[in-house]
Amino acid sequence: MNQPRTVHCKKLDKDLPGVPFKPFPTALGQMIYDQVSMEAWQMWLRESPRYINTYRIDLQSKEGRDFLEKQMKVFFGFEAGEMAETAFVPRDG
What we know:
Elements: E1 6-9, E2 14-17, H1 27-35, H2 38-54, H3 62-76
Antiparallel strand pairs: 1-2
Helix pairs in contact: 2-3
């Protein structure tokens, strides 16, 4: 059985198993493959629907994909900036 690839995760700042595939056939996909752990990728997959739902993003549109890509870059630390606010409010407790 193959050992998972280890990357130094940009988001979590530690060496962890990397994402085992390029999630997009783009430069961003390569950066995620090279610098994002599977743990951080799973965090993004849990987080991203909040943006899609709050802003009613149409992922079929270039504007929608560009908006979500920018949030992803900020989330992983590839780009400086603030994450957009979401309607999500964590429950106390």
